Amino acid sequence: MLKTVLVLSVLSLVVCSGCTNKQVYEATQQKFDHAQCMKLPRSQYDECIQRELPSYENYERESKEISDQ
Which of 9, 35, 41, 65 has the smallest C-beta neighbourhood within 10 Å, fewest atoms? Predict the structure, then answer.
């Protein structure tokens, strides 16, 4: 079991190392937001799905501002 987890972890790192920060951000945000929308009642779900995700550029700028403080 531990060996399997270790192998999967290493493979995940290898795969992710080929991705840019922007690609990782966009892929994970979409999945996270969709999961959050799924928790809402149907009346709010459609609006939630239509909502535009913050761009990576905005995320990066906000992160830099926070780290500079």
Answer: 41
